[in-house]
Amino acid sequence: MKAVICTKYGSPEVLQLKEVEKPIPKRNEVLIKICATTVTSSDCFVRNIYTLPRIFRLPARIALGFLKPRKSILGMVLSGEVEAAGQDVTKFIKGDEVFAYTGMKFGAYAEYTCLPVNGKIGPKEVLIALKPTNLTCEEAIAIPYGGTLALHFLTRIGKIKEGQNVLIYGASGAVGTSAVQLAKHFGADVTGVCSTSNIELVKSLGANNIIDYTKNDEVNFKVKYDIVFDAVGKRKTSKLKEQCKKALTPNGKYISVDSGRPQLLIEDLILLKKLAEKKIIIPVIDKRYPIEEIVESHKYADKGHKKGNIVITI
Question: What count of Cα atoms within 13 Å lies in the side-chain half-sphere of residue 233?
Fold first, then answer.
């Protein structure tokens, strides 16, 4: 089968398309023929740990591999079709269309992968569910990464409530576009921070107010926020972001995607499926690339200006 192998840490050119052995499912696994995946910020960090501050590089090597990623096939989310199921698997059968978050197991940059059927994310666990019935596999794959992370930070960390004022910094990225839609669904008044070119997109997702960071490096906040959610993390900072951190109500919370390891649950993926089927959550796709153009897709991601998701078709 075809798979993209990360040969060492570095620029997008370290990714190479090769022929590898097709996996065989174990008793508790499903074999999935992958239709699509995405280029996530996590994939890019793992591909090139040199983008991390020096203090974090040694811990990253210990966790991921010293000279190259221990899991050579990257890719953290996928959509596809179950081709075979191990004898202990009862949740899925051959022909089921699914989408999944593979977590630190990776493996989505390939034609096939085997995933264990478990419930809670962990170093060797995944989240897998039937994909939304109203979406194609390419559309469905634009939901798991940003959606599960946004749910974790808004609900479990932020404890979002109806009627709150929520500001989302980085509202046009994969996590940000999901966060805007979910915050709106939970009844919040949403302010999105984005660039001029993304204003209409963020408005269309439900944001009540927009702050254009390309035109406002100093903002006199008249509104205080119950939650300020930084959906881009430490890789992007600005004077405006520092002001956003302080624009909180007395009991307000500042949350960043860098804040600890997310606790992701299978219930999150199932909820996202239901919300997508009700068109409460819509997938946001910036560009599509075939797997043969994986290097070009990572080059585009490295520019840091993608809108929503970059989809890789397989």
Answer: 16
Q: Is the pLDDT of residue 121 over 50?
A: no
Give the mean model confidence (pLDDT) for residues 194-205.
96
Integer Cα distance of 230 and 107 in angstroms: 28
Q: Are 128 and 117 in contact (CB under 8 A)?
A: yes
Instruction: Please report which confidence band the pLDDT of residue 244 belongs to, taking 50, 70 and 90 as the band edges.
Output: confident
Question: What does the pLDDT look like over 94-114, one tens digit per residue?
Answer: 999 999 999 889 999 999 999
∠ CA 233-237-240 to the nearest 5 degrees? 115
Band the pLDDT of 123: cuts 50, 70, 90: very low
**How far, in Å, CA of 180 to CA of 165, rounded?**
12
Taking the whole predicted model, whether its pTM rises above 0.90 is answered as yes
Q: Give the DSSP per-residue string, the chain.
A: -EEEEE-SSSSGGGEEEEE-PPP---TTEEEEEEEEEE--HHHHHHH-GGGS-HHHHHHHHHHH-SSS-SS-S--SEEEEEEEEE-TT--S--TT-EEEEE-GGG---SBSEEEEE--SB-BTTB-EEEEPPTTS-HHHHTTSHHHHHHHHIIIIIIS---TT-EEEEETTTBHHHHHHHHHHHHTT-EEEEEE-GGGHHHHHHTT-SEEEETTT-SS---SS-EEEEEESSGGGS--HHHHHHHH-EEEEEEEEETTSS----BHHHHHHHHHHHHTTSS---EEEEEEGGGHHHHHHHHHTT---BEEEEE-
How far, rounded to the nearest angstrom, does the alpha carbon of residue 14 sit from its chain's CA centroid? Answer: 22
Q: Smallest Cα–Cα separation from 211: which of 233, 186, 226, 228?
A: 228
Domains and CATH numbers, the chain: 2-142+283-313 (3.90.180.10), 146-256 (3.40.50.720)
